[in-house]
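Feature request, filed as a ticket because there's no other form

It would be nice if the structure record came with a short human-readable summary line next to the tokens. Right now we just get the raw output. Example of a typical job, pasted below so the devs can see what we mean:
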Amino acid sequence: NEMLSTPNFHTPALALALDTLAIAHVHLATASAQRILKLMNPHLSGLPKYLSPIGGASAGLLPLQKTVAALLAEIRLCAQPASLDAIAVSEMVEDVAPQTPLAARKLASQTDLLQWLIAIEALVAAQAVDLRKPKSLGRVAKMLHSTIRATVPSLHEDRATGPDVAVVRQAINAAELRSVLANIGLTAQ
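Raw output as currently delivered:
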């Protein structure tokens, strides 16, 4: 958490890489949001509306759609390149200040938002699995479903889902799960 200044250290390449990753995150987030919305749409998923097992006026997981929309909007906002605001500073001695620290902070903030979105998708997917009741799941899907259900019960009636998302986020970011996924080649350690 320290930045040490050095003479002639020029960081546009780093700022551009961070900005590019932020733009790539938007594509990942958009795909996640679309999968969430499709799972809740009975015409597309063949599952009950909003993944509510009781139907009728039940909200099911519908309130999470508003959160998904807000997260996606903020993730997109964080994709605005910081490196575009490079100007000459120090009485024109330094030709370019590429805003690399800003690009790094913005990316860190965006990554946090993306983790919330992924936790919502995981929770929604687990509910879809519970409703679909497939005969079997792949190894990783089964492990993720088990991890989620070990921390959050399936939705049987309307309840606040914000706390569920927080618990799922913590569970899927746990070191133990990350270690297992890394060992089967699905994530960096």
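Something like this underneath would help us a lot:
The helical segments are 12-40, 42-45, 63-77, 100-132, 139-151, 162-172, 175-183.
Residues 64 and 120 are 7 Å apart (CA to CA).
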